[in-house]
């Protein structure tokens, strides 16, 4: 399946990446965050397979799918044991999504896909 991300549907989204955390005096201290902007589309996830969430071992269907032509390199919690999964923030609605799965396509039009679930960032 070829994907074309045009300026008509693509917009700026925010990638929130966490630095690795550490244990200090027996307490877990989360790493700092860095927000960067990338261009992509945020679309509802309809159909497809569910994705296993590594921390719990449960399977969960993604709420949204992010498509981008950029080489963002989305990270899930499984890909990095010392830091949290990347988050995608929709600047228009301020809704935060956590990346639970990724795919890269290199065929006709290289692009990257992130499967995300909506989270309440205040409680995580």
Descriptive notes:
The chain is mainly beta. The protein has one domain: Thrombin, subunit H, CATH 2.40.10. The protein contains no helices and 10 strands. The strands form 3 sheets. The chain has a 6-stranded antiparallel β-barrel with strand order 1-4-7-10-9-8. The protein has a two-stranded antiparallel ribbon with strand order 2-3. Strand 2 and strand 3 form a beta hairpin. It is globular, with a radius of gyration of 15 Å. It starts with 10 loop residues before the first strand and ends in a 5-residue tail after the last strand. The mean pLDDT is 80.
User: Hey, roughly how much beta strand do the residues contain?
Assistant: over 45%
Give the number of domains: 1
The residue fraction in helices comes out at under 10%
CATH topology: Thrombin, subunit H
Q: What is the approximate shape?
A: globular
Features of the shown structure:
single chain, 124 residues, mainly beta, Thrombin, subunit H, six-stranded antiparallel beta barrel, two-stranded antiparallel ribbon, globular
Concise synopsis of the structure shown:
This protein is mainly β.
Write the layout of secondary structure elements.
Blueprint (H helix, E strand, L loop, with lengths): L10 E8 L3 E3 L2 E3 L3 E12 L6 E2 L6 E2 L3 E5 L18 E4 L4 E11 L5 E9 L5
Antiparallel strand pairs: 1-4, 1-8, 2-3, 4-7, 5-6, 7-10, 8-9, 9-10
């Amino acid at each position: 399946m070829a994907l074309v991300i045009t300026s008509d549907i693509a917009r700026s989204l925010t990638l929130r990446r966490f630095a690795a955390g550490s244990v200090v005096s027996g307490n877990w201290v989360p790493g700092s965050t860095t927000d960067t902007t990338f261009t992509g589309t945020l679309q509802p996830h309809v159909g497809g397979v569910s994705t296993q969430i590594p921390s719990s071992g449960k399977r969960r269907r993604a709420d949204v799918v992010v498509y981008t032509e950029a080489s963002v390199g989305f990270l899930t919690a499984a890909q990095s044991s010392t830091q949290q999964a990347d988050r995608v923030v929709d600047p228009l609605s301020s809704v935060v999504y956590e990346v639970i799965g990724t795919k890269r396509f290199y065929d006709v039009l290289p692009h990257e896909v992130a499967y995300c679930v909506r989270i309440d960032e205040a409680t995580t």
